[in-house]
Amino acid sequence: MRHQRLQEILEGARSKRVLIAGDLILDEFVWGEVSRISPEAPVPVVRVTGESWFPGGAANVARNVRELAGQVILLGATGDDEHGRRLVRILEEAGIDTSGVIRDPARSTIVKTRVVAKHQQVVRVDREQPGAGTIAPRIVEQIRAAAPVDAVIISDYAKGFITQEVADEFIGRLSHFPIVAVDPSPLNPIDWSGATAIKPNRAEALRAANVLDGSGEAIEQVGLRLLEKWRAQFILLTLGEEGMMLFEQGRPPYHTPTRAREVFDVSGAGDTAIAAFTVALASGATPKEAAVIANEASGIVVGKLGTAVATREELLARGREAR
Question: pTM value?
Answer without folding.
Answer: 0.92
